[in-house]
Amino acid sequence: MDPQSAPVTMHIYCRIDVIVTDPAAVTRQAVADLRAADIDWSTEEDDLEAAVEELRSDLAASVSSVVDISHLADGIPGVEFRGGLCWAEQGPARDPFRSDEQ
User: Fold this and answer.
1) Which is nearest to 87 in space by CA: 100, 73, 97?
2) Which SS3 state, helix, strand or coil, does residue 46 take?
3) How much is the pLDDT for 82?
4) pTM, whole model, 2 decimals?
């Protein structure tokens, strides 16, 4: 690819399976990250303690909050991370990108 050409936006779809061996440790990390985040709670629907309680009661929310997909492209020359979406679900794997209308 010509280095002078315009940047090209690419979409990378991933499914990553993890096993949580210590849910309490995940939740502690998620809560610590939330408390350390620079969030203006006056502009949020919840307050800090409500958000902490949500993390403590929902392992999938805790896992999602500590997974950092922004490092996915680290070390790849010519690639800049611009954003993405990451979520966690419990249960059997499914394909959220496929339409049920097939």
Assistant:
1) 97
2) coil
3) 87
4) 0.71
Token pair in block for residue 7: 């940047």
- pLDDT band at residue 1, thresholds of 50, 70 and 90? low
Query: Which tokens sit at 72?
Result: 């996915």
**What are the structural domain ranges in the chain?**
9-92
Closest CA to 71 of 88, 59, 84: 84
Count helices and strands in the chain by DSSP H and E runs: 3, 0
In angstroms, the CA 13 to CA 11 distance is 6
Q: What pLDDT score does 71 carry?
A: 85
The pLDDT of residue 2 is above 70? no
SS3 content of the chain, % helix, strand, coil (to 5): 35, 0, 65
Q: Which pair of tokens denotes residue 99?
A: 């339409």
